[in-house]
Amino acid sequence: MTRKLILTLATALIAFMAQAQSKIDQVVNDLEKASDVDVTYTERRTAKKHKLYRVTTIINFNNDAYYRKLAKAFEDEREKSVSAVKTRDQRTYKFVDSKGTSSYTLTRNSVIRNWRSSDDKGDEESCVDVIKTDCHGRTHITTTVHTDISRMHEKLDRQLTMDKSELAREMESLKVEMAALQVALRTEPLVGGYGINLVEM
């Protein structure tokens, strides 16, 4: 009985997760077929098995009805998301299921759908699309950066932070030494029995 209950609950959970962002996907899929939108589609596959592991779809539009339809779908699915960030001009919701992670970003004139497979480990062959939104709310892929380059930049940033910390420690050490030297010069007499008062100098 217990085992049957667990299986039933697991099946229900999988079904729930599979439907988590179905309304958003349905609207996005419909918009891809519209004649008055601009669609950019990118995908990444593994080098050896050509297995799909990352997909990005960007749709730019000028029809306010599309925005309202997407906004409703976003809000209908928000309680099923694992994270949700919403501002006046943008909202980004993330969903996770057994196949991977999906994130959706909606602006006034664009929607972005990113899917990343649960098998995507971000290997050396992986790429990251740098996506930017212009002043008109239209979204574009500006560059594609290889993750090994990204990791190199992160390493350089960490090294720079460490160098700054080391420099700060050295500066503090020098300050302590200078303070001790000033005290010594104020109190110790020079040859001939005359001392130096740095304050008066």
| Principal-axes shape call | elongated
Spatial gap, N to C terminus = 93 Å
Number of strands: 8
Average residue-wise pLDDT: 75
Helix content: 40-55%
Instruction: Calculate Rg over CA atoms.
Output: 29 Å
Query: Largest beta sheet, briefly?
Result: 6 strands, antiparallel
N-to-C series of helices and strands: HHEEHEEEEEEH
Structural class: alpha+beta
Count of the separate structural domains: 1
Written account of the structure:
There is one protein chain. The chain has four helices and eight strands, in the order ααββαββββββα. Strand 3 (83-86) and strand 4 (91-97) form a beta hairpin. Helix 2 (22-32) packs antiparallel against helix 3. It is an alpha+beta fold. It has helices at residues 2-18, 22-32, 64-77, 147-187, and strands spanning 38-45, 52-60, 83-86, 91-97, 100-107, 110-117, 127-133, 139-146. It has one domain.
Tag the structure with descriptive keywords.
single chain, alpha+beta, 6-stranded antiparallel sheet, two-stranded antiparallel sheet, elongated
Briefly summarize what is shown.
This protein is α+β, with helices and mostly antiparallel strands and 201 residues long.
What does the secondary structure layout of this molecule look like, with pairings?
Layout: H1 2-18, H2 22-32, E1 38-45, E2 52-60, H3 64-77, E3 83-86, E4 91-97, E5 100-107, E6 110-117, E7 127-133, E8 139-146, H4 147-187
Antiparallel strand pairs: 1-2, 2-6, 3-4, 4-5, 5-6, 7-8
Helix pairs in contact: 2-3
